[in-house]
What does this fold into?
Amino acid sequence: MTYDPAPQQSHPSIGPWLAPLLPQLIEFRRDVHANPELSYEEHRTTERITATLEAAGLSPRRLEGTGLFVDIGEGNIALGLRADIDALPILEETGLSYASLRNGVCHACGHDIHATVMLGVALTLGRMHDAGELAGKVRVIFQPAEETMPGGALAVIEQGVLDGVPRILALHCEPRVDAGMIGTRIGAITSASDTIKIELTGRGGHTSRPHLTEDLVFALAEIAVNVPAVLNRRIDVRSAVSVVWGQIHAGSAPNAIPAAGYMAGTMRCLDGEAWESAGVLLDEVVRQVAVPYGVDVKLEHIRGVPPVVNAEAETDLIERAARSEIGSTSIVLTPQSMGGEDFAWMTHKIPGAMLRLGTRTPGGETYDLHRGDYIPDEKAIETGIRVMAAAALRAVADGQVA
It folds into this structure.
């Protein structure tokens, strides 16, 4: 990539400004990890972040319910930075000394790392501003409820938090990349994600006489197999439309055709336009596949989030910052994820990009997200702060040149 509007601009290294803060930030992360809160319940987390920012002389502003944002610096906003702060309804199985104190709730997706990184960015930029090293304004957003659909990002937008923000960045933990490294890519980096719920009903009957009733289990099986197959022939395969079922329930006896059944799954897609058309087509195909079996169909199609699409200039901003702080060999091309992410609503509104923050201990175990045993390497926190704070400095400089 060659885009660099201010190639001669020099920027102070983030490391010396950050170093005194790291012990406090590690303590903060472990406290939040031990006290996880589900979507829209992040009251303690919000209070903890607010108190830390206020103690540093900053002026955070609370959002309705949970979440907050803080502006650092003066003038027009040059960049927005977003972290999500909610946990998941998953039992922690790490055995860490600071493991979750709340049974069945844990930070299995690394949002405690995200919050810590952005808190560190805010504190670092605050110190730099006080020393005259930040010639502009940066807004840091701590967003609730990413793990719900369609996501807490919409409430943040509705409250006007992105008003006046010209561009925005975020990060997400990546357990397949080593700590000390980041992953980037231009274009779709996450998938659109919808939830599909289907209820079938019929008269029920004996398995010896399926012709005298509606063979509901067979109909469920046909929908499970044929709906994804039909969509793959009706939608451009380059859009990567994927329908996968996570639940199928029906019946209680091997010789009885049940009168009701249920199935649910997700539809994911890497192309925004295809997501719109595939959503309409999916509903049509489900009903068409069910018609020959005479069952009644109740379909609930819950629209989720569009893909996160990384803009070229914002991806370049991340890469310029990373090259200066952690070196060009620490940047890898990250694969596209079929997971959903409500940061997409923000990049749908203004240009933005999300980086993948490596959290694997070099030579250590490769975990997956949304697992109760996920242990990110805390060294990733310093990497995330350095890259994001450096990106903020470059965004300010870009705004001055423009």
